[in-house]
Amino acid sequence: SSTHGVERLFEGDPAPTEVFESLVQVTTSASASNALGPMGAKRIVPWLPADRGTGAKPKDYLIVVCDPRLKSPYLQQTVRTLNTQLPMELRKRLIVVNADTPAENRRFIKKNGIDKVDVFSDEKMEWMRAYSALGAERLTMTMFVVGNEQVKKLARDLDPDAAIRVITNAVKNM
After folding, report:
1. Which domain of life is it from (predicted)?
2. Residue 53, domain member (yes or no)
């Protein structure tokens, strides 16, 4: 199987923290794309203390939508939908993780006017492997809600047409 011996994560399991440091935030500027590292991870990981005024994400929970498939039309459709339709208070808590290069992500963001969703590259799939998002049989899109060092909710095989509803329901009682 393609899971490389990684145990599948379930709701209630500890949420891996260090792998956030390997993500590369994609910005529209073509500046050097560096991994977040410990400082950058503090801005997005809810349970890490962040310095004030650094554009940090809210600290209660983080929604992650990820897809290990390269240039996934399913993820691209979902990102376009989330960018325009997900309520602001949820978008502030959302990141998207994929295996595309920062340059490919930058092109997608520019071409589609994605301005409200933060996209991160995980080319080596370190984050997705740690979060068991690579799937046992086939690759699919997955949504995780993490908070308090735990996987609070997860939805595997996320359907682009249902993404808004799935995310909204997942965080309803957070």
Report:
1. Eukaryota
2. no
